[in-house]
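Backbone-to-sequence.
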């Protein structure tokens, strides 16, 4: 569950996020759309604690972050947050020195202390669901971009975090793999996970996201049920964006 109110993020004196507010109910999916540079990745980085916020409040899986917290308290809470939130970044950051399997079991064995055998069994199941079981012993550099993206997704899912965040998860996937990923993610939502998905692909979000948030220049322009935002957008800026995205 996420509650964000009046979130402000600044960098080098400019406001990248200008008072963003929204909520994501448990076991639902929020899709975030918007032009390049509108602040989508920055929003995810604030939600998972990678960026310290400059204004407003975030409540993420019962961890409260507030711009007024001391440095020490902020980092303490971010540590707690990390155990509950998994992120698949736009740039994937796979560990190059670990095999595909090694990448997937790294956090479960080191952070959650899952026994290696159990972690491997789960990792093989996840790799199978993203179609990469055969690649378990290979190293990331030998994989195609789309394959690496699927490893990063399996790695995030392996932590079974309450909240999962994805930044452009389909950018390197072909239509068949995108559809496969969509059903995989739907399965995780049905099993109790909550998600925030940033995507340029409206088609991918349609039928996956319960709600859509359209951002422009660090502000929320439109936010509501996916069907309503797509079929009867209220703001002319959203209409323009959707028109061009078609
Ligand atoms: N550390 C920083 N210092 C200065 N400007 C920054 C910093 N981080 C982000 N920005 C700027 O903030 C804006 C939002 O960036 P962000 O990466 O969140 O956009 P985005 O919506 O994810 O774009 P894309 O669709 O291209 O991934 C951009 O103009 C970016 O240049
Ligand atoms: Mg981005």
């Amino acid at each position: 569950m996420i509650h964000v109110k009046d979130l402000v993020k600044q960098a080098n004196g400019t406001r990248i996020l200008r008072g963003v507010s929204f909520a994501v109910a448990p076991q639902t999916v929020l899709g975030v759309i918007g032009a390049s540079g509108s602040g989508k990745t920055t929003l995810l980085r604030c939600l998972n604690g990678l960026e310290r916020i400059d204004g407003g409040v975030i409540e993420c899986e019962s961890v409260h972050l507030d711009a007024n917290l001391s440095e020490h308290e902020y980092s303490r809470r971010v540590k707690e947050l990390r155990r509950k939130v998994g992120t698949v970044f736009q740039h994937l950051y796979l560990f190059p020195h670990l095999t595909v399997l090694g990448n997937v079991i790294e956090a479960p064995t080191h952070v959650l202390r899952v026994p290696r055998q159990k972690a491997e069994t789960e990792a093989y199941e996840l790799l199978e669901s993203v179609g990469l079981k055969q690649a378990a012993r290979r190293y990331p550099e030998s994989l195609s971009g789309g394959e690496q993206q699927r490893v990063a997704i399996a790695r995030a899912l392996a932590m079974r975090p309450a909240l999962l965040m994805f930044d452009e998860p389909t950018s390197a996937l072909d239509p068949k793999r995108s559809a496969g990923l969509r059903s995989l993610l739907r399965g995780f939502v049905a099993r109790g996970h909550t998600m925030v998905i940033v995507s340029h692909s409206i088609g991918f979000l349609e039928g996956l996201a319960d709600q859509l948030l359209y951002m422009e220049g660090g502000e929320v322009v439109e936010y509501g049920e996916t069907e309503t935002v797509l079929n009867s957008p209220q703001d002319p800026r959203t209409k323009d964006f959707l028109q061009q995205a078609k």
